[in-house]
Amino acid sequence: MKLSINQMRAVEAVVRTGSFSAAAKELGISQPSVSNHLSALEKHYRTQLIHRNGRQAEATETCREILSRIRSVLAMTDEIEHALEGRRRMQAGSLRLGYSTYQFAMPILSDFMTQFPEVEIEARAMASNDLLPLLEDGKFDVVFITSDEAPSSLYVEKIRTERIVLVVPPDHPLCGKGSASWQDVANAALVQRENSSGTRRVFEKAATSAGVKLNTVLALGSWGAIVTTINSGMGIGVAMEGEVLPSNNLVIIPIEDETLSVSHYLACLPEMQHVSAIRAMFNALQDNE
């Protein structure tokens, strides 16, 4: 028996959706057909690929070891099918994209959409450390993430490095100082992103190294909410310098710590870097530099 594309599609869909019925619905085949694909593989190779627990299905360790390669083969197979239909040259298709900071992602995405207007884009905003598991699980094709260093398990290109700064209203007392010490930070009521934010994790790690206990009074899920909260006088914001736009009507206050910076990256799984839509997104990054 030779491993078939349909069997690989069945394995990938069952793992991603978590059930045989959901996989069958997505693939447009019957649930028994999905079960037969999996059973044939497991019987032939004498190994279990899926744990079956009632209606739930989970990948075994063996399945997890080969899953990324299956997804790579399926992505390449999709490209071949598109080529046979005359659609390979980015005249159709889709790209699932996650981003943590729209100020950095949108100029690159705009260039991509200008070059390939027929490609359907699905973009979702999330904190960096929420994006990474979804990329590993195949829910995103590429992600824009913030981190102190490039994740070694991914194919990445750096977009930029930014200082982490305080952000205050124009009438705040810190505006007269021009910069803030770690003691100023310790005395402030801080407004930050959620715990899974890359910027927040780097900032809090630096504060710990400086021996500073932070007083975070609000954790918010979007930059717009942080801007509104700061302008309402509810606290001092923590952000990457490049996030702050003139329209926000806020003042950037550098922190007196030369090591306090974070980088922004475009990332994908290594085995997916040559898929045409993903490669085109990385090219758009280079064009935007």
Automatic annotation (TrEMBL):
The keyword DNA-binding applies. This is DNA-binding transcriptional regulator, LysR family. PANTHER family: HTH-TYPE TRANSCRIPTIONAL REGULATOR, HTH-TYPE TRANSCRIPTIONAL REGULATOR CYSL. InterPro entries: LysR_HTH_N (IPR000847), LysR_subst-bd (IPR005119), WH-like_DNA-bd_sf (IPR036388), WH_DNA-bd_sf (IPR036390). Keywords: DNA-binding, Transcription, Transcription regulation. PROSITE patterns: HTH_LYSR. The keyword DNA repair does not apply. Residues 1-60 form the HTH lysR-type domain. Pfam families: HTH_1, LysR_substrate. Transmembrane segments: none annotated. Belongs to the LysR transcriptional regulatory family. It comes from Cohaesibacter marisflavi. It comes from the Bacteria. One of its GO terms (molecular function) is DNA-binding transcription factor activity.
